[in-house]
Amino acid sequence: MDRREVLAGAAMLSGALLGGEALAQAGRRSTRNFRRIATEEAFATPEFVEACRDIVKAGWNSKDLDFWRGLLFRQNDPRLADLLDLDQQRLATMDRLGIDMQLLSLTSPGVQFFEPMTAATLATTANDHLAEAIRRHPTRYAGLAAFAPQDPKGAVKEMERAINGLKLNGFILNSHTNGEYMDDPKFRPILEAAAALGPIYIHPRPLPDTIDGPYRDMGLWTAMWGFQVETSLHALRILFSGAFDDFPDLKIVLGHMGEGIPYWLYRLDYMYPKMERMFTRKLKKKPSEYVKSNFIITTSGMNDHAALKYCVEVLGPRNVMWAIDYPYQEAEEATTFMNTAPVSNEDKALIFSGNAERVFKIAQS
Amino acid sequence: MDRREVLAGAAMLSGALLGGEALAQAGRRSTRNFRRIATEEAFATPEFVEACRDIVKAGWNSKDLDFWRGLLFRQNDPRLADLLDLDQQRLATMDRLGIDMQLLSLTSPGVQFFEPMTAATLATTANDHLAEAIRRHPTRYAGLAAFAPQDPKGAVKEMERAINGLKLNGFILNSHTNGEYMDDPKFRPILEAAAALGPIYIHPRPLPDTIDGPYRDMGLWTAMWGFQVETSLHALRILFSGAFDDFPDLKIVLGHMGEGIPYWLYRLDYMYPKMERMFTRKLKKKPSEYVKSNFIITTSGMNDHAALKYCVEVLGPRNVMWAIDYPYQEAEEATTFMNTAPVSNEDKALIFSGNAERVFKIAQS
Fold this sequence. Notes:
Number of helices of chain A: 19
Order of helices and strands of chain A: HHEHHHHHEHEHEHEHHHEHHHEHEHH
CATH superfamily of chain A: Metal-dependent hydrolases
Largest sheet of chain A: 5 strands, parallel
Strand content of chain A: 5-15%
Oligomer: homodimer
Distance between the termini of chain A: 34 Å
Helix content of chain A: 40-55%
Structural class of chain A: alpha/beta
CATH architecture of chain A: Alpha-Beta Barrel
Largest interface: A-B, 54 and 54 residues
């Protein structure tokens, strides 16, 4: 039993002495002290929704939109209204739950599955739309910029505009682009720009068609399983390509408790020296060291205390950030999950907002 | 703090009162009391090695053997001698480390990548070879039978012979067979037989060629990453096919701390009701309930206390078994890992041998 457990035990004991109602009040008081910044929160622009509908209406076969089809066309799907809203219901939900700020990003599937020109235009309009919402509600929103990797030079220009011009806080990427990953040499300018400008949040996307056969035919291709298979592969390709040796300041944010990677730190470190011959470059550090220095994970979609405790133990409390995945997952469940998390108050403050302030350069309140 | 923690605390306190040296002695005494059964331990027959060499010599392109090629042809690779030995060095290592028993299985890549007739013959000779070794050393070995799923009817006959005739303890399967998984209706007789006869240990194998592109070109296709991607996919396909509703007694053993699946219990349960429409059958229980009732995991290749603690917490101590992966991983490291594991002595006894005795019907010593 370490010191934190002793303190927690003492708190429980004093709670018992206070009686149930007083304890509940004390709980509300103590949790109200945390600034809460949710870090994987989706929005959509009208232009983006229209462009998605055009694809579906034209009968194009889009696996990315298969997942989204119902939401786009069902009458009055509340999630579509929630995605488009940045001034009403979203803020009311945040007020009700004590959420100070959302770090917004253009909803998946993002712009990468569009034609390159459309993708670039949609990214630009989404970033402008986002910057305006932040201007209207500067203490309630921060944001990640979309960009179209299909044209790496154009992407870098938009990344620079988003940070230096629009004052956004980093970037959102929906995993692969036409089956290609960010370790590809053609995307090197994008990683270089991100190392200088701000972190890239790699959000899941369905696996490329070329490798999704046995996920697709069993219903395992989306958030059940395939999303993490795709996103962890992407993150590890970047790691083992040596990108973090070239760009030590490059930060990659991974949702869903790190897309499974924290579970494998021992094995990655154990196997890498035996497998080194399979890689074109030799890494300077152990794989787990990059996971701890260049990846930061969020709790999005994983309201699971056991996994949270595990991650805080193996990655340290500075590498975990809180997220909801609004409006796709329930804001109240995610907030209660973190309010009641079995970690010290010091760690809770880091996970609720301290790490997000540092990583995304969000002004302290 | 539950009862076990209190007892552990009391043990530590009495250790402190005894002083350092007495404590170390007490530690040695207490660890000597565990029966140790290692559950993922490889052997090879001369026939199997010869058949692998034939494939390589004939110039056939075998991804499975790429991984093995050095071991087959390097002069005096000690691992090849260790795989073939069942009477000398293996027993000496076990004696030195206090390992009472190895549960043996034919080494990966197993028989599934051979032509069907060759596969069946190699499985039969391996099972006979294994049964003879157990007859020579009945207190030191138990064993898992190989079988050739290419011919499901023939496989079932060999499975019955292995359990009823040779008195083996279960089955070893090296994941996919020609890109097909055990949920395929043609393999149904094999799952039905296993439900009646004994558990199937699904050992990793490289991903099918059809879906390994971005693993292959980055050195991520073997034990670094691809092995668990392949094996967890296989296990989840069986689960979501509804096989455990048809065969509630079917047990699947997974190495490497459950191939990552224990990390995802919350998300599998959260997402399944939303994704149900993607599946042809509706499951009777929550996904995590099958993980706890029909999967059993081993620690093979994952000598990691944080992951062990996590698995004991989320799966319960009856669902975790100790393994080394001899001779591919170090027996001493795996033994020390479990000797010093941060779990109660009661749980340690289950993980070291109690669960293996129950699951594989190994007589208690």
